[in-house]
Each structure stands twice: as C-alpha cells, then as structure tokens.
Write a structure and sequence with these properties.
Largest sheet: none
Order of helices and strands: HHH
Number of strands: 0
Number of domains: 1
Helix content: 55-70%
Distance between the termini: 58 Å
Number of helices: 3
Oligomer: single chain
Radius of gyration: 16 Å
C-alpha cells in the first residue's frame, strides 16, 4: 500500500509555479510601494496582487502603473 497520496507526484511541478508566483507578488508589491501614483487606489492593487495569484501581479504591471 502506497503511503503517499497521489498528488505528491506533482510537487516537483508545483514548486517552480509557487516560486514564480511569490516572486511576482513580491516584485509587484515593492514596485507598488515605490510609486507615488497608480491607476486607482493602492489598496485595491494590493488586494489584486495578493489575491489573484499569478494573474494579479501581471495585471498590475500592465494596467496599474502610471508611466
């Protein structure tokens, strides 16, 4: 009888995704805190970046930054 559940075989695939997601989130949050202005309130962007996983930081970098 196998002691490990079936999902453990996917851990090597999930680790890079988690690292990318955390890296994007930290990068986006640091960038957000550095900028004096953004498109929309900063608190909304914080929620989007943290809650929407990989897509949230990408949306911030594309639509949230004023350049």
């Amino acid at each position: 009888m196998d002691a490990a559940p079936g999902w453990t075989q996917y851990i090597p695939l999930l680790i890079p995704l988690v690292v990318i997601q955390l890296g994007l989130m930290v990068w986006a949050l640091l960038d957000l805190l550095k900028r004096p202005t953004t498109r929309g309130p900063k608190w909304v962007w914080i929620i989007v970046i943290v809650v929407v996983n990989i897509i949230g930081p990408l949306v911030y970098f594309v639509a949230g930054r004023e350049e």
